[in-house]
């Protein structure tokens, strides 16, 4: 039936869901469902794909269309294209259908008698087929009647129909049972039932099909081994049978009846696959699996059985199906990719290698597939061509290729056939044949083919594969590295690589690169000086300069000319440079290698020597006797050589080739050796690499080291000896600056000049330890001041900054220069060499090189490797014989050969030559250093076919000198006077004019005969929309002429008829005539413009008329009021246009431009448009984005765009530019990746000459984002093209659009803009809508979920929108700015760095009205009506324009250019505005009245350049609300009620309420209320302060109050039957931190009193004098809670406001300030949101907001903030990460935080040096992480580094962490931390609360007594003894009843039930509170003096 034949009514898209995976279902405008075909070629079923008609259809090509195997079976079956069945593999029970014997079948056998088959299913030893009419046929083993129930034979030799079954939908088979899925969606089973797998409720064998009772509505059925599972129409999973590995998703045991087991991860299941001891189920929402994971089949990185469903996460594509094998899972995506996890011991994954366990999903080696299934240690896939490929175990012929040899790569099954066409495999390099009824494929070689890659040539067949030779690419610019071949318009083009960085770190030099030589040039800047005090201030870390301080100014001079400064480089005129001569710039080998490599002066990589394992990068493994270029890589900047593999860095990326058996190439998977360079993906941010024997190590930018590959001898440094193809972190190594690797050990140099080593320790190579394997790094003893690392086979060496060299290790051959051949365990200085620069080692010899180029050698010389003109071993260092020109500048050593590089660019080698190691074309040994042959012999070898270069060979190296002036041809018809310019053929564009001034955009086009043809442009539109004028264009002048028609009156019927398109007028219709008047003065009407007198215009004030930034950019540009352009920020690539690549902290004038009308800042380039319509661009031109017609050289000054004319607007993004032309069309040029040029082309080719955006006309506005662009048409519609990954362009799975698509939801749009991956538009009527990315909440809907449907912003009267990387800004017509999204740099301008997921006002400077807003990556700028610019956020490159590189959270004023003070008016009454030296300066005023325009503040005054007011105190007069706030409504201040108090006693027989006057909760008994009690326990209302009793006669409960003063909670006592704080005495709470030395109390009148240590003002009384008795904190009232850190204090008032004081250097006070100036009185924590509770510890503070979210701020270097960072300072709140939502209680103290969930799980974070946070060895835990804790815990707490948890109901206590003073109460002490909870001893009462001091723990019991344990040195445990207490004991010195007790350092204090405080212990700082201080400790609990004035 046609898809649209059915007119189904709908209201929403869900009404139209048709379960067809091949259609897009939608509800049309007319309320009728529309089903559109989609996803052609996607997998939609077993062997089925979506066709163009939107239907799921079976394959018609090849021979097979569905395959099947049992996960524990040994045979496969397939449904053939002619609807028969063919089987192969084991046949011991006739399971392949071959009934003439039980011999195995190694090729497919067509089962006789079967026709019209639509599906096949295999059990372990039997098979069944389902016909198209619903009949079931089975054959094979029948011992349990599993095949044919009516047959009594134990085996069935031929396919036989199963009687009694009709209308069967599907078949499921297990080990020895079978089930049919019936047409009525019930299930019928037969066969074995020993495990209850048939679900009948018993274990009796079933001898004929039997309906499974109760199992109805089945959608999917699957069986395997001994269990069966079904998915029913309710979306639930039902299983029965064996459950030993949880495969039926039960908690334990065997299940004999079907039990529902819904998978919580995957709702609404639709399919199930049962496997060997596993089960997988899924739907369009995803898949998950349960069961056995012995070999990692769950793919989640674990080998633990999955009791709960483990989600299958393999690809961005949805899964089409799952399959199971033997302990393995396979996932098939809709795109046809096959992923695998689990057992792969025989290569079932087809990856050319094997692995017993693969615990993470990997993409297999099968290529594209439409069906997959797994058997016993093998698997097979069905390809889209209808062929079957298998890999793995093959003892029984299960691979179907005619063999019984196992294979770890896919082999083709020799399918049944009648003609060769059925055997076509789509491979041009195989001969496809049909012989004897079976397919065969013979690999061919030599024939020409096409590998589909335009960047290869000479493609030919080789062993059945099409392989091409990589095109060598060079852009002729020596300053670009890693030039790459790319395909453009189907042809290969050379794309420039990464620009070489030339930065000498000297602020007084202009750094540049010579494009001819590639040499860095550092030219002194005239007049530049660097101030200094000592010469140390002048150190530029350059060994080639001498830096001294003379008269307060740094003086630099070149030094050490000719001396080595780096490998292959010497000092020259203050720079470290290579000579640029000869053919080589750098060489490398390895201690046990038989090959060497060099980087050529042409930046190619050359290798020679042994070619085994493809280690020399050639397609052959033959020996190379002379250097040969490695194909496929150029622009090489660094290299590393291992034993059998090689790596090189090009374009900033590392590439490796050669031996990959253990995964040493870094591809992430082990496998076959690789001749072609493979990108290193196992590690990221790699800055250097070191290679050894089959392993690699990578130095990361973070200073950590990752290793991968062969792990024997511990060479990976991860603590083990296993091999890993994915990178593992080397344990304990941080701040590494260099790495080195030998044969089987490696070392890292650290930033402090020390070294750490790991791996083999043979001959004491790395340590004095007797162990020969050190799998965890150890500090290299004696290695200090290390300059460079090196070594040899069993030794390690290093050079120092003083020029000395040391080694340890093997000395059997005297290689250490010591005559005694004794191994050295202690560092031995090498005697003989002086001023050593570097040492290299081979197998058993060393070579040393000093700074002057002198060489020494020592050690074994049996092959001449010392180069001493003999083969005599030398036990002393001697000079070799060097027969090569120049001075040595580098040395390298292999196993038995040595090479050196000279400053003439020549390489010389000596020693063994049997594998070509000498590189001289022979295999003989050399005994002196002799020249290696270069890569060229004559100029003919260097011919590149470029007429603009002169090609020569010099010193063995090709040189390509650029030509200039010679004529050439650029191949373009529309250019003339083609000539060579600096090596590039360029022509002058033909000027085209059709002599008609009324056409715009006349252009030259290439004619059919390749001639230049001038094509007329679009006619000028002179229609003025006035019916009373005659409109025409003057062909001479091009001007429009609109002649008034005499007597004509323009009539109207409605106001809309009079709309003139002017936003600044009010248009109306009166009596049939239009009337217009000026309106809306001051409202924003366009970028940088406001309405004035009916016109939309700029103010002309100040200096700036318009600003521009880009979502991915880091710079801004502004249009000056005088028509010039000014830019600031990141200057890389020349994007600022001032002739340099330097960043500017203030606006700098763009060179040469004037009369501009617009300016644009894009990603890495900028553009401008002048009055004449000429477009100018400058900056990065890698992809041709400057519009100059070619890719290549960047431009630091503006150049006229040549590829387009008639421009009226420009737009651009990441590497591309678009132009809106007068004709209303759009042309784009630059980077074509993913359709961002909109031309319709699907290639990613660069288009430097411009292409029209396909199909766009009548465009009035364009805008470029990062990787997509949009256009607004005259009709108000928006059309977009480019990337759609986050659905900014449309709510569809299409990831990119190559030509424009309409955003149908955007109509009547007045403008379009937005963040990097978004699209936002303002519709006429001022509604703002956005779509796309929402990772940082930038859509403003309080969510982080991306949205392809519009999200409407709740902001009124929006005039314009702009976006940065992940944030949005909205400008309203009245000049206000709203912001939302990412705020990590403060870019929202809201005073904090907290993200906002809802729109909030951006806090513009006082008095500022914005007329434009724009954003760069993480910076926001606004243009004011006064012509000034203010910016906020990121400032690393000076984007703020204020002269600073420090991020700000409040707007800073851009110091723009000026000539008078009036141009600097920023409308801020709190700054003095001056024009100084041509730039605006804004002096902050510290006093003076002003208005901050906020009705909720009073007493506004200037402070620090800002107008600041005092918040209005707010009270809604309702005591039952907390946190009342002032809000602005209709420009008036109103008091908004806060959060209501919760009054609920949980008792059903009381009416609960709150008294609005007092705020007290009322619980009024309900008359005659009975709760029907039987016993007293029935009446328990959970209130400790009531005595609950039951009258059984009436069933009524009585709650009588407990005695007043009874302890009911920590800090609480009973009052009239309710638990609350004390109402007697002077203190009702106390607080301190274990790491602190002061304590505070919350008083009865809600003030705060503190005493003790006061060095940082933490007492809060305005001084820093210690307080020996409580002192009331200044100015704090209505305090509800206090929190103390080590040296700061906070108080939370009843309005939810937090005030803090004390130490603030880490930002812990929450006011946004981190300063060494302490705060001695309370200050509002202005960056902290309204919070409900506060905690503090060490140097940080935390608070929970009213929504329950936890925030922390302050110190966090060891993860104490829990925000997943280790930033030391954080002055604004950041969210704690990793916390679950169901938090029941929190404890934050000292340097840790812990939270317990309602499920009793414990999550902790922070400093973990004593394992109190986590049982792991990690020293820092940066996010809340679950840790082990006893079950039933109801309270927890502890001391500084120790923690205890109590089970109150049982009176039990468990402790862990630091036990150095016995504080854990175990009866012993230990210097080793206790990582797991242990039972504490001595506690005889039930615990109520746990606290602690520095090293002692305090337990408050339910009876009000104290128990202590731990450090007693200062008598702090309260027992009168100074001996540490190693078990808990009653604190006998505390004799009263207490409600709270705590410790701080070595003091203990407790609060009594009478509101008094008692202390004992250390009193040095007056912590006892008695009014005195003393060094004598206090033994007895001493009463603290009450503070004066407290009630």
Short description:
With 1991 residues, this protein is mostly beta strands. The strands form 51 sheets. The protein has a five-stranded mixed sheet with strand order 73-77-76-75-74, with no helix packed on it. It has a four-stranded antiparallel sheet with strand order 6-7-8-9, with no helix packed on it.
End-to-end separation = 88 Å
Strands in their spatial order, largest beta sheet: 73-77-76-75-74
Number of strands: 163
Helical content stands at under 10%
Q: Give the overall shape, derived from the CA principal axes.
A: globular
Class derived from helix and strand content: mainly beta
Number of H- or I-type helical stretches: 0
Largest sheet: 5 strands, mixed
Can you offer a commentary on this structure?
- There is one protein chain.
- The chain has about 2000 residues and is an all-beta fold.
- The chain has a 5-stranded mixed β-sheet with strand order 73-77-76-75-74, with no helix packed on it. The protein has a 4-stranded antiparallel β-sheet with strand order 6-7-8-9, with no helix packed on it. Strands 10-11-12-13 form a 4-stranded antiparallel β-sheet, with no helix packed on it.
- A hairpin with a 3-residue loop joins strand 10 and strand 11 (about 125-130).
- The radius of gyration is 40 Å and the shape is globular.
- The model is unreliable at about 1-5 and about 250-255 (pLDDT under 50).
């Amino acid at each position: 039936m046609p898809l649209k034949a059915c007119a189904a009514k709908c209201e929403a898209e869900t009404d139209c869901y048709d379960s067809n995976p091949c259609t897009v279902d939608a509800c049309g405008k007319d309320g009728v469902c529309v089903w559109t075909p989609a996803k052609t070629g996607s997998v939609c079923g077993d062997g089925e794909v979506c066709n163009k008609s939107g239907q799921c259809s079976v394959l018609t090509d090849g021979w097979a269309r569905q395959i099947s195997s049992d996960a524990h079976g040994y045979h496969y079956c397939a449904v053939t294209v002619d609807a028969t069945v063919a089987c192969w593999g084991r046949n011991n029970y006739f399971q392949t259908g071959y009934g003439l014997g039980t011999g195995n079948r190694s090729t497919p056998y067509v089962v006789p008698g079967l026709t019209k088959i639509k599906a096949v299913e295999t059990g372990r030893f039997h098979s069944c087929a389902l016909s198209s009419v619903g009949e079931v046929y089975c054959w094979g083993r029948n011992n349990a009647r599993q095949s044919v129930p009516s047959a009594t034979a134990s085996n069935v030799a031929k396919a036989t129909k199963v009687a009694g079954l009709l209308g069967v939908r599907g078949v499921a088979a297990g080990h020895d049972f079978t089930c049919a899925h019936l047409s009525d969606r019930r299930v019928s089973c037969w066969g074995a039932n020993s495990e209850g797998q048939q679900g009948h409720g018993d274990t009796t064998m079933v001898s004929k099909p039997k309906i499974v009772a109760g199992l109805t509505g089945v959608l999917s059925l699957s069986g395997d081994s001994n269990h069966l599972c079904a998915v029913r129409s309710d979306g639930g999973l039902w299983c029965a049978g064996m459950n030993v590995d949880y495969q039926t998703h039960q908690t334990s045991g065997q299940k004999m009846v079907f039990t529902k087991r819904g998978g919580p991860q995957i709702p609404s299941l639709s399919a199930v696959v049962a496997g060997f001891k596993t089960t997988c189920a899924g739907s369009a929402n995803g898949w998950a699996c349960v069961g056995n994971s012995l070999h990692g089949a769950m793919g989640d990185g674990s080998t633990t059985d999955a009791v709960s469903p483990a989600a299958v996460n393999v690809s961005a594509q949805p899964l089409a199906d799952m399959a199971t094998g033997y302990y393995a899972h396979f996932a098939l995506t809709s795109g046809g990719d096959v992923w695998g996890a689990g057992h792969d011991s025989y290569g079932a994954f087809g990856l050319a290698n094997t692995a017993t366990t693969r615990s993470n999903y990997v993409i297999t080696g099968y290529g594209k597939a439409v069906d997959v299934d797994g058997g016993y240690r093998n698997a097979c896939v069905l390809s889209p061509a209808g062929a079957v490929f298998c890999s793995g175990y093959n003892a029984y012929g299960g691979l179907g290729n005619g063999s019984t040899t196992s294979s770890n790569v896919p082999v083709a099954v020799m399918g049944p056939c009648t003609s060769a066409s059925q055997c076509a495999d789509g491979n041009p390099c195989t001969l496809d044949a049909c012989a004897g009824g079976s397919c065969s494929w013979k690999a061919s070689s030599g024939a020409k083919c096409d590998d589909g890659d335009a960047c290869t040539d000479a493609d030919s067949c080789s062993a059945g594969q099409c392989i091409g030779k990589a095109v060598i690419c060079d852009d002729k610019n020596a300053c670009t590295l890693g030039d790459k071949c790319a395909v453009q318009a189907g042809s290969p083009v050379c794309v420039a690589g990464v620009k070489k960085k030339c930065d000498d770190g000297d602020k007084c030099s202009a750094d540049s690169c010579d494009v001819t030589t590639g040499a860095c040039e550092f030219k002194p800047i005239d007049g530049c000086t660097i101030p200094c005090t000592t010469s140390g201030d002048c150190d530029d870390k350059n060994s080639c300069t001498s830096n001294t301080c003379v008269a307060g100014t740094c003086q630099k001079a070149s030094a050490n000319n000719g001396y080595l400064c780096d490998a292959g480089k010497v000092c020259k005129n203050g720079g470290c440079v290579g000579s640029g001569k000869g053919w080589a710039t750098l060489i490398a080998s390895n201690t046990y290698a038989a090959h060497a490599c060099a980087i050529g002066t042409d930046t190619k990589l050359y290798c020679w020597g042994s070619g085994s394992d493809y280690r020399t990068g050639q397609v052959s493994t033959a020996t190379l006797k002379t250097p040969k270029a490695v194909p496929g890589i150029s622009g090489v900047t660094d290299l590393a050589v291992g034993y059998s593999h090689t790596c090189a860095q090009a374009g900033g990326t590392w590439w490796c080739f050669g031996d990959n058996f253990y995964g040493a190439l870094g591809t992430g998977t082990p496998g076959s050796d690789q001749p072609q360079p493979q990108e290193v993906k196992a590690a990221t941010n790699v800055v250097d690499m070191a290679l050894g024997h089959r392993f690699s190590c990578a130095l990361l930018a973070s200073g950590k080291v990752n290793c991968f590959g062969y792990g024997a001898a511990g060479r990976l440094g991860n603590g083990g000896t296993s091999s890993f193809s994915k990178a593992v972190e080397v344990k304990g190594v941080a701040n590494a600056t260099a790495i080195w690797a030998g044969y089987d050990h490696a070392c890292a140099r650290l930033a402090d000049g020390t070294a750490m080593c790991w791996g083999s320790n043979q001959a004491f190579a790395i340590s004095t330890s007797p162990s020969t394997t050190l799998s965890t790094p150890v500090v290299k003893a004696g290695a200090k001041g290390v300059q460079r690392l090196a070594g040899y086979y069993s030794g390690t060496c290093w050079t120092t900054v003083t020029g000395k060299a040391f080694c340890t290790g093997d000395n059997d051959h005297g290689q250490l220069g010591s005559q005694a051949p004794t191994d050295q365990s202690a560092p031995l200085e090498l005697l003989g060499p002086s001023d050593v620069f570097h040492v290299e080692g081979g197998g058993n010899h060393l070579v040393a090189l000093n700074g002057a180029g002198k060489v020494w050698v020592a050690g074994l010389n049996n092959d001449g490797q010392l180069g001493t003109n003999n083969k005599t071993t030398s036990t002393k260092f001697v000079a070799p014989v060097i027969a090569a020109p120049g001075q040595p500048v580098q040395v390298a050593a292999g196993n038995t050969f040595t090479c050196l590089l000279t400053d003439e660019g020549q390489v010389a080698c000596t020693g063994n030559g049997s594998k070509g190691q000498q590189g001289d074309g022979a295999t003989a040994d050399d005994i002196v250093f002799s020249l290696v042959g270069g890569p060229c012999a004559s100029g003919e070898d260097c011919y590149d076919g470029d007429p603009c270069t002169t090609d020569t060979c010099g010193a063995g190296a090709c040189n390509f000198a650029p030509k200039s002036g010679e004529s050439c041809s650029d191949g373009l018809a529309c250019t003339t006077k083609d000539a060579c310019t600096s090596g590039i053929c360029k022509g002058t564009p033909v000027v085209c004019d059709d002599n008609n001034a009324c056409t715009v955009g006349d252009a030259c086009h290439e004619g059919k005969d390749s001639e230049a043809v001038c094509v007329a442009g679009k006619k000028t539109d002179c229609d003025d929309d006035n019916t009373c004028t005659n409109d025409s264009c003057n062909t001479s002048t091009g001007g429009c002429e609109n002649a008034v028609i005499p007597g004509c009156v323009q009539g109207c019927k409605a106001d809309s008829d009079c709309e003139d398109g002017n936003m600044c007028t009010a248009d109306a219709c009166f009596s049939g005539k239009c009337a217009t008047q000026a309106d809306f003065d001051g409202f924003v009407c366009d970028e940088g413009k406001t309405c004035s007198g009916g016109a939309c215009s700029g103010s002309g004030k100040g200096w700036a008329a318009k600003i521009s930034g880009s979502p991915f950019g880091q710079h801004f540009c502004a249009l000056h009021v005088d028509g010039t352009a000014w830019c600031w920020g990141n200057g890389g690539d020349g994007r600022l246009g001032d002739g340099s690549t330097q960043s500017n902290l203030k606006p700098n004038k763009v060179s040469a431009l004037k009369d501009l009308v617009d300016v644009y800042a894009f990603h890495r380039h900028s553009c401008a448009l002048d009055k004449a319509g000429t477009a100018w661009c400058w900056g990065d031109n890698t992809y041709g984005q400057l519009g100059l017609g070619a890719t290549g050289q960047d431009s630091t000054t503006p150049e006229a765009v040549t590829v387009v004319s008639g421009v009226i607007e420009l737009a651009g993004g990441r590497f591309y530019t678009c132009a809106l032309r007068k004709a209303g069309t759009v042309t784009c040029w630059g980077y074509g990746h993913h359709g961002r040029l909109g031309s319709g082309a699907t290639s990613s080719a660069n288009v430097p000459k411009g292409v029209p955006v396909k199909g766009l006309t009548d465009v009035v506005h364009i805008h470029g984002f990062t990787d997509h662009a949009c256009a607004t048409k005259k009709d108000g519609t928006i059309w977009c093209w480019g990337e759609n990954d986050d659905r900014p362009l449309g709510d569809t799975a299409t990831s990119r659009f190559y030509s424009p698509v309409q955003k149908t939801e955007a109509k009547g749009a007045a403008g379009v803009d937005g963040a990097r991956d978004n699209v936002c538009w303002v519709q006429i009527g001022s509604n703002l809508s956005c779509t796309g990315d929402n990772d940082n909440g930038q859509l403003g809907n309080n969510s982080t979920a991306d949205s392809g449907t519009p999200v409407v912003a709740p902001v009124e009267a929006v005039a314009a929108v702009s976006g940065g990387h992940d944030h949005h800004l909205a400008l309203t017509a009245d000049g206000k700015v709203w912001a939302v999204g990412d705020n990590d740099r403060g870019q929202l301008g809201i005073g904090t760095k907290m993200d906002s997921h809802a729109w909030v006002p951006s806090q513009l400077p006082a008095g500022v009205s914005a007329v434009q807003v724009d954003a760069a990556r993480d910076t926001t700028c606004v243009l004011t009506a006064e012509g000034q610019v203010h910016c906020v956020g990121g400032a690393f490159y000076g984007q703020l324009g204020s002269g600073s590189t420090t991020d700000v959270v409040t707007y800073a004023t851009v110091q723009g250019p000026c000539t008078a003070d009036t141009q600097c008016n920023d409308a801020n009454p709190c700054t003095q505005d001056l024009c100084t030296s041509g730039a605006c300066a804004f002096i902050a005023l510290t006093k003076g009245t002003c208005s901050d325009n906020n009705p909720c503040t009073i007493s506004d005054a200037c402070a620090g350049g800002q107008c600041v007011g005092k918040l209005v105190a707010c009270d809604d007069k309702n005591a039952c609300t907390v946190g009342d706030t002032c809000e602005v409504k209709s420009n008036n201040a109103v008091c908004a009620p806060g959060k209501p108090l919760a009054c609920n006693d949980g008792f059903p027989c009381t009416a609960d309420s709150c008294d609005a006057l007092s705020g007290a909760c009322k619980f009024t008994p309900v008359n005659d209320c009975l709760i029907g009690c039987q016993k007293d326990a029935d009446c328990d209302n959970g209130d400790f302060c009531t005595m609950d009793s039951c009258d059984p006669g009436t069933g009524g409960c009585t709650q009588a109050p407990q005695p007043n003063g009874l302890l009911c909670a920590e800090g609480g006592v009973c009052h009239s039957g309710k638990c609350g704080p004390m109402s007697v005495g002077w203190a009702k709470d106390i607080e301190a931190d274990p790491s602190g030395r002061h304590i505070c109390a919350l008083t009865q009148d809600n003030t705060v009193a503190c005493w003790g240590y006061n060095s940082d003002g933490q007492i809060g009384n305005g001084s820093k004098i210690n307080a020996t008795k409580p002192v009331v904190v200044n100015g704090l009232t209505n305090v509800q809670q206090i929190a103390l850190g080590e040296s700061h204090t906070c108080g939370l008032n009843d309005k939810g406001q937090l005030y803090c004081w004390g130490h603030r250097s880490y930002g812990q006070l929450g006011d946004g300030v981190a300063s060494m100036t302490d705060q001695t009185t309370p200050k509002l924590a202005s960056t902290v949101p309204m919070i409900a509770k506060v905690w503090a510890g060490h140097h940080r503070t935390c608070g929970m907001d009213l929504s329950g979210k936890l925030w922390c701020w302050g110190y966090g270097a060891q993860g104490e903030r829990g925000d997943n960072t280790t930033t030391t300072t954080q002055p604004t709140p950041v969210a704690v990460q990793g916390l679950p939502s169901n938090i029941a209680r929190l404890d934050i103290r000292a340097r840790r935080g812990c939270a317990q969930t309602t499920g009793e799980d414990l999550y902790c974070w922070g400093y973990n040096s004593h394992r109190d946070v986590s049982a792991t060895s990690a020293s820092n835990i940066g996010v809340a992480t679950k840790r082990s804790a006893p079950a039933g815990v109801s309270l927890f707490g502890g001391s500084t580094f120790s923690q205890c948890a109590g089970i109150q109901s049982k009176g039990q206590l468990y402790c862990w962490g630091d036990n150095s003073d016995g504080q854990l109460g175990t009866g012993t002490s230990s210097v080793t931390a206790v990582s797991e909870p242990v039972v504490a001893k001595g506690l005889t009462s039930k615990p109520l609360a746990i606290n602690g001091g520095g090293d002692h723990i305090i337990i408050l019991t339910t009876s009000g007594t104290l128990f202590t344990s731990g450090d007693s040195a200062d008598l702090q445990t309260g027992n009168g003894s100074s001996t540490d207490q190693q078990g808990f004991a009653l604190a006998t010195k505390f004799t009263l009843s207490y409600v709270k007790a705590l410790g701080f350092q070595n003091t203990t204090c407790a609060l009594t039930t009478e509101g008094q405080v008692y202390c004992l212990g250390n009193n040095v700082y007056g912590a006892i509170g008695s009014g005195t201080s003393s060094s004598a400790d206090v033994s007895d609990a001493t009463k603290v003096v009450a503070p004066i004035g407290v009630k």
